[in-house]
Amino acid sequence: MLRRFSTIFIQNRGIKHQVKLKWVRPPYVPAYKPERSGDLESMPEIPPTALGKDYALSDEIKDAPEAVKKIFSVAHLGQKEYNALVTKELIDRVRRHNYDENTAETRIARLTGHIRCLQETMEKYPKNVKAKQTVQELIDKRKKLLKYLRQYDYRKFEWLLEKLNIEYKGHPESFHKLSRKESLRKLTEMHCEDIRNKKLSDYRNLLESQQGPFLKSKLEALKFIKNEQIELQLPVTVSDQDIKKVEQQLEEWTIKDQIKKQAMKKKRNVLMDLD
Amino acid sequence: MARNVVEAAKKFLLLGQCVPTVKQNAAKIRVKRLELDENLLMYFRKDEFYYCHDPDKKCKTGDIVLIQALPQKLTKLITHEVKEVVYPLGDVTDPVSGKKVAKERYREDIEREAELYGKTKSTFDFTKAPPRGWQDGKKDFTSKPTYTKFHVFDENDPYAI
């Protein structure tokens, strides 16, 4: 009876974990969000007194009274005209010539303007399904255009990323739904790798710490052998070069050891401060 | 006889494309081959991957390169070396006329067209643009493979999607 209850309340997934890993599932981020779409800036600032895109070209508006100007300003004309100005500003950043409408850079700039406006809309009305679909399609199209641009003109691609403030990430090998098993497997692999690296570095440190005493004894032994050979008038097998080499090695080791000890001290001090 | 064939095969140059890899001291090259299916009597594409020794880092992701087998394996993984970069990605020179090309047009022609229409200040200038790589790791994340984000780490990896 008790066992039956315990199985109900404690979920047993059938995997015995040897290592204790804490897995946090990454939170869901909608694809229209700037961090997913790669937009590093929001809409450019446009004053509400700016005139509408087409009206600004007219000669009469220049010396019109304030009240008329107010009527033809974007604050009065509505969001659509405002968005048109946003797109125009982005296109003006990269435009090749005045009649340039259909080159890759202008197309990408136009899409970017549209995307940023729609992202604003989505922030206000997250349940607007039509806008959600549109912005997703536009983001995909922009990514495709960037991909092609990268293939035939890399320098322009990089310049465009800088001008429009977009981030570009390559396609992953496979788009798949994240599973618990896969994540745990990867985390375990990383954990094992950490253990392996730690053991290796520990062993390396041990060996390096033994290097100094060994070099000292070697130096003494070499000098002793040389003196003995000279005293007993035997052929000298230990040259000055050998001794110099060992001395040099010892010097290098002491410098390295000092640096290491200082780093250790610093670490210990930091830990003490934390406590 | 067999040994001669193997040695001759080692001298072959292979043409492949550099693909993103996490290895820092080697380049991963994809060589496209065709394999005959004897039942269907049809050729199917088959990719082979080689890790190549590239100490000067002369090839970047997407470049078309020539590789050759090393006389001895450098490591268990690295068997080839990068001989030459034939076509850098997005910076192609026409081999016949020696002019720079973007897509199907000469760069001169594109420049000339912009001049005729009236160049603006915002025009992209190819001659003044820095060579590829100044955005690598800042806004352009293509040198390493991207993957699905599987855990919330303290540090955010830009290659996780």
Q: What strand line-up does the widest sheet of chain B have?
A: 1-2-3-5-4
Mean pLDDT of chain B: 92
Oligomer: heterodimer
Which structural class should the secondary elements of chain A be placed in? mainly alpha
State the helicity of chain B in percent bands: 10-25%
Number of strands of chain A: 1
How much beta of chain B, percentage-wise?
A: 25-35%
Radius of gyration of chain A: 35 Å
| % residues in beta strands of chain A | under 5%
| Helical residues, percent of chain A | 55-70%
User: What does the main sheet of chain B amount to?
Assistant: 5 strands, mixed, barrel
Summed up, the helix count of chain B is 2
Sheet/helix structural class of chain B: mainly beta
Number of strands of chain B: 9
Please indicate the count of domains of chain B. Answer: 2
The CATH architecture of the largest domain in chain B comes to Beta Barrel
Envelope shape of chain A: elongated
What gap, in angstroms, lies between the N and C termini of chain A?
48 Å
Average residue pLDDT of chain A: 90
What is the element string of chain B, with H for helices and E for strands? HEEEEEEEEHE
Q: In this structure, how is the largest beta sheet of chain A organized?
A: none
Subcellular location (chain A): Mitochondrion
Organism (chain A): Galleria mellonella
Protein name (chain A): Small ribosomal subunit protein uS15m
GO cellular component, one term (chain A): mitochondrial small ribosomal subunit
Give a short summary of the structure:
The complex is a heterodimer of chains A (275) and B (161). Helix content of chain A is 66%, strand content 1%.
Task: Write a structural description.
The complex is a heterodimer of chains A (275) and B (161). In chain A, 66% of the residues lie in helices and 1% in strands. Chain A is mainly alpha-helical and 275 residues long. Chain A folds into 2 domains: 27-164, no CATH class; 184-274, no CATH class. Chain A is elongated, with a radius of gyration of 35 Å. Chain B has 161 residues and is mostly beta strands. Chain B folds into 2 domains: 2-87, Nucleic acid-binding proteins (OB fold (Dihydrolipoamide Acetyltransferase, E2P)), CATH 2.40.50.140; 92-127, no CATH class. Chain B has helices at residues 2-10, 107-117, and strands at residues 13-19, 26-37, 42-53, 64-69, 78-87, 92-93, 100-102, 105-106, 140-141. A 5-stranded mixed β-barrel of chain B has the order 1-2-3-5-4. Chain B starts with a helix and ends in a 20-residue tail after the last strand. The model of chain B has no long low-confidence stretch (mean pLDDT 92). Classes of the chains: A mainly alpha (275), B mainly beta (161). Chain A binds chain B through residues 23-27, 40, 92-100, 105, 150-162, 165-173, 175-176, 178, 182-183, 186-187, and chain B through 20, 62, 88-92, 102-103, 114, 117-120, 122-124, 126, 129-132, 134-135, 139-142, 145-152, 158-159, 161. Chain B: Keywords: Ribonucleoprotein, Ribosomal protein. Chain B: One of its GO terms (molecular function) is structural constituent of ribosome. Chain B: One of its GO terms (biological process) is mitochondrial translation. Chain B: Belongs to the universal ribosomal protein uS17 family. Chain B: InterPro entries: NA-bd_OB-fold, Ribosomal_uS17, Ribosomal_uS17m_metazoa.
